[in-house]
């Protein structure tokens, strides 16, 4: 009986993969949207994230992250203030964080695919984020790009000339914990 129990434990443990914990050390969170045919680029800062990821067993991982909405930067002071304060945009005094929380991570054709709940202005929608992961010497980089429809989060209202599509670019450099 002891031999069977030990065998069961060994088989069970060999199939168990543990996600590694990564501590973010730097990030670049950017976006772009067309306005009257011209691309407007912007960024956010203040990333806080919990990254648990094993590239050999991505389904065991989880990622949760947020940025400070008030850090939005488009290299135009008036536009920044408008985006931060107006009800049709981020209204950062009322909604200070933009967050992502994974619901599933799997291997994809060119890396990995994360399925996330993305919350902006207390509206949560599902997004699919293809990303890559590279690791060397206990340092890693997560990098991904995805598109959203800004109207799904009540951003921008019916602003004349503004595209509904927003491209979001994420790069997070992390170290093993």
From TrEMBL:
Keywords, sorted A to Z: Signal
InterPro entries the record matches: Lipid/polyisoprenoid-bd_YceI, TTHA0802/YceI-like_sf
Classification via Gene3D superfamilies: Lipid/polyisoprenoid-binding, YceI-like (2.40.128.110)
Organism: Runella rosea
Signal peptide: 1-19
Pfam families assigned: YceI
All copies of domain Lipid/polyisoprenoid-binding YceI-like, residue ranges: 21-175
Protein name per UniProt: YceI family protein
């Amino acid at each position: 009986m002891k031999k069977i129990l030990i065998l069961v434990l060994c088989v069970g443990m060999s199939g168990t993969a543990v996600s590694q914990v990564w501590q973010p050390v730097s990030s670049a969170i950017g976006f772009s949207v067309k306005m009257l045919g011209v691309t407007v680029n912007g960024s956010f800062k203040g990333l806080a994230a919990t990254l648990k990821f094993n590239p050999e067993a991505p389904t065991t991982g989880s990622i949760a992250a947020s940025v400070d909405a008030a850090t939005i930067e488009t290299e135009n002071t008036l536009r920044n203030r408008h985006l931060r304060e107006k009800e049709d945009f981020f209204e950062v005094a009322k909604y200070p964080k933009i967050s992502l929380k994974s619901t599933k991570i799997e291997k994809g054709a060119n890396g990995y695919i994360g399925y996330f709940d993305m919350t902006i202005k207390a509206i949560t929608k599902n997004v699919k984020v293809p990303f890559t992961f590279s690791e060397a010497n206990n340092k890693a980089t997560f990098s991904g790009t995805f598109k959203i429809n800004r109207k799904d989060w009540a951003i921008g209202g019916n602003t004349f000339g503004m595209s509904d599509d927003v491209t979001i670019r994420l790069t997070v450099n992390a170290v093993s914990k």
